[in-house]
Design a protein that fits this description.
This protein is of the alpha/beta class. The chain has two domains: 146 residues, Quinone Oxidoreductase, Chain A, domain 1 (Alpha-Beta Complex); 139 residues, 3-Layer(aba) Sandwich (Rossmann fold), CATH 3.40.50.720. Helices cover 28% and strands 27% of the residues. The strands form three sheets. Strands 3, 4, 5, 6, 7, 14 and 15 form a seven-stranded mixed sheet that branches. Strands 10-9-8-11-12-13 form a six-stranded parallel sheet. A two-stranded antiparallel ribbon has the order 1-2. Helix 3 links the parallel strand 8 and strand 9. The longest helix is centred in the middle third of the chain and has 23 residues. It is globular and about 60 Å long.
């Protein structure tokens, strides 16, 4: 089978598209013929070696995939059934989806909603699934459309783009935060009411600033997240799911104890199965598959290595789906 394989030697890490015997696939109850995978920020770090994502070598990257069950020892999955996988350490400690086949635990899979094709599922991918988890987190903490503006950071990326579309459809007034110079039309087409420059949030700010946001979805972390927390209205909620701008949080406790702000972490990798099923069910109901086309750039498996570098350099907008031959 064809696969992107990451190897490590004394001279460093390499990633190549190679032929791999199917017998080398790691153990698992379900063998899936992969139809589509995707490139996430984490995949970019893994392929380029710019982040400590891969914990076991050799490794096939790809934290997402969608495809057809080819063989199954798990009674929950029949041969021919379409399935989707997000996270669970796949592409980090267990061979992932940037290959023609994947063998995984049945516990990691969920049935692909009939509303989506495998390509559409990967246009959503971990990014869109995480965006839905963030929307669910805001709702569970009581943030409603009438409460005020919702700030979404990393708005031109996968999580941000889908989050804007989901929130706008549910009636929220969304403000997009982006560090890129592209036309605001991209964000307004998704449903954002306005756009703010990330540069406004990257400098040190006061522990408490003017109250602006009823809630926020943040993929950046660092100084940006600290300033967002300082601007959230009384009782507001921030769903934090990324650290593209840094893992530190140079903030104080003042927004949390003086304004009752909630900082809610959102994890997509080890998220329990019931929440995954709810998230994908809601995506099937609330996300227009046609809207994904404007967010999606398709490449072949042979292009994934080169595209990983472009992704890390912020030269890719929206989602990248990888067509597996």
């Amino acid at each position: 089978m064809k696969a992107i394989r990451i190897d490590k030697s004394e001279t460093g890490q390499t990633a190549d598209l190679v032929d791999v015997p199917e017998s080398e696939l790691p153990p698992g109850e379900v063998l899936v013929r992969v139809e589509y995978s995707t490139l996430n920020y984490k995949d970019g770090l893994a392929i380029t070696g710019k982040g400590p994502v891969v914990r076991r070598f050799p490794m096939v990257p790809g934290i997402d995939f969608a495809g057809v069950v080819e063989a199954s020892e798990d009674e929950r999955y029949a041969v021919g059934e379409r399935v989707v996988l997000n996270g669970w350490g796949v592409g980090e400690t267990h061979w992932g989806g940037l290959a023609q086949k994947a063998r995984v635990s049945g516990d990691w899979l969920i049935p692909l909603p009939k509303a989506f094709s495998s390509r559409q599922a990967m246009a959503i991918g971990t990014a869109g699934y995480t965006a839905m988890l963030c929307v669910m987190a805001l709702e569970k903490h009581g943030v409603s459309p009438g409460d005020g503006e919702i700030l979404v950071t990393g708005a031109s990326g996968g999580v941000g783009s889908v989050a804007i579309a989901l929130l706008a459809k549910r009636g929220y007034k969304v403000v997009a935060l982006s560090g890129r110079s592209q036309s605001p039309d991209y964000f307004t087409r998704l449903g954002a009411s306005s756009v703010v420059d990330r540069a406004e949030f990257t400098e040190p700010g006061k522990p408490l600033q003017k109250e602006r946001w009823a809630g926020a979805i943040d993929v950046v972390g660092g100084r940006v997240l600290a300033n967002i927390c300082a601007q959230v209205r009384y009782g507001g909620v921030v769903a934090a799911c990324g650290l593209a701008g840094g893992a530190d949080l140079p903030a104080t406790v003042m927004p949390f104890i003086l304004r009752g702000v909630t900082l809610r972490g959102v994890d997509s990798v080890m998220c329990p199965r019931p929440e995954r099923l709810e998230a994908w069910s809601r995506l099937a109901d609330e996300l227009d598959p046609a809207a994904l086309d404007s967010l999606t750039h398709e490449i072949g498996l042979e292009e994934a290595i080169a595209t990983a570098g472009l992704l890390l350099d912020s030269k890719i907008q929206g989602r990248v789906v990888v067509r597996v031959p």
